Hints:
Blueprint: H1 3-24, E1 27-29, H2 39-53, H3 63-73, H4 78-126, H5 128-140, H6 156-177, E2 187-193, E3 205-207, E4 211-221, E5 226-235, E6 251-259, E7 264-273, E8 277-289, E9 294-309
Parallel strand pairs: 3-9
Antiparallel strand pairs: 1-7, 2-4, 4-7, 5-6, 5-8, 8-9
Amino acid sequence: MSLKRRLITNIKLVVMVLLVATIINPLIPAMSAKARPSQLVYDMYEELVSFERQQLLVKINTSKVALLLNEMLHVNNTSRLSLLANNVSSLLNSLSSEYDSLYLIELAKIVSFIMILLVAIVLLYKYRRALAIRVWWFLHKDDIVVKPSSKKRVDTLQEYIVFLVIVLIVVAVIGVAQYVHITSASFTELLLLGKNNTLSDYPSIVPVGDNVTFTIAISNHLGYTGFYKILVKIDKGENNLSASSPAAVKVLREYYVIIPNSAQTIIKVPITFNQSSRYRLIFELWRYDTTRHDFVYDGIWVHKWVEIVKP
């Protein structure tokens, strides 16, 4: 093949690639996709989660650590990253010391409540007959008619002891119940919001070239601080969406966010379409798993159909 013919063939190949790329990617990003965070963020996050999962009896608020980690997500300067990482380590050490002190206090409380309960049980056993008589009399006093002279009173000291036993049992049960937590299912919620952050008025018809902003809300109910990756994808409906596997389409954007437990974060996704058609936007939520040291797909996604029309 001659040099001229090879040159013409290569030019045609380049033109075809550009045309295909334009068809596959009909979006002009209004904001470049965020690069993968520094390894320091992952290391500090795993240290935070390890601290949170080891907490017993008392929970320490770690939202300040999450704020610092979120700041690290958007820093590219190495020295600044190192400084923030040192701040995170110092804050975790301070929170760990605070936790140790509070843990000893709460442990002392539990021991006290248990001792009270044991004393109440011993007294209950010793004065069980007097307690039974008082309970029986309380339940049947309106049904029995007796002469005043024939009434048999329980010893006054025993009455006081019965009352004391009841009080001790109530105090001990209430005290111990404070440390009995019903474990609820851990989950993360992903919502697509419309205007004014409501579940309505979604953008559905958009002129070509106009900028449109989609809003997603992420609520963390994992029981510990969550580290999430949001993948923004697009297709025309030719792919089946499944909870078992992510959509096999090109990723347009990546967003990273760290959310404290029982907190919510709202992310704005601005997009400009440059071709008229009907598209499906897919927002997938990935969670960082500290055991796998990578993001995993839990089958959480939302999608929205958008009609792009010529102005």
